[in-house]
Design goal:
With 71 residues, the protein is mainly alpha-helical. Helix 2 packs antiparallel against helix 3. Helix content is 77%, strand content 0%. The termini are far apart. The radius of gyration is 13 Å and the shape is flat.
Length: 71
C-alpha cells in the first residue's frame, strides 16, 4: 500500500517545527542543516526520501510563523 506521508516524514516535520520555534532567527540555516542531513543519509545510510526535505521546510515555515505570531 502506498502511503504519501509516513510517520517518519512527520517526525521530520515536528523536529524542524520545534527547532524553528527555538531558533526562529535562523530558518535558512535550519533548512541547510536539513539538506546536509539528507545528503548524509543518502551517502552513509542509503536511506533517503525527498518528502523529508519538503516536510523539513514546512516545519520551519510553520514554526517561524508561529513564533512571529506569538510576539
Amino acid at each position: 500500500k502506498f502511503i504519501f506521508i509516513t510517520s517518519w516524514n512527520m517526525s521530520h516535520f515536528f523536529f524542524y517545527l520545534v527547532l524553528s520555534l527555538i531558533y526562529h532567527q535562523y530558518p535558512i540555516r535550519l533548512f541547510i542543516l536539513g539538506v546536509i542531513w539528507e545528503i548524509l543519509e543518502l551517502i552513509f545510510l542509503d536511506c533517503h526520501d525527498i518528502m523529508d526535505l519538503y516536510l523539513n521546510f514546512a516545519g520551519i515555515v510553520l514554526g517561524t510563523l508561529l513564533r512571529k505570531l506569538n510576539k
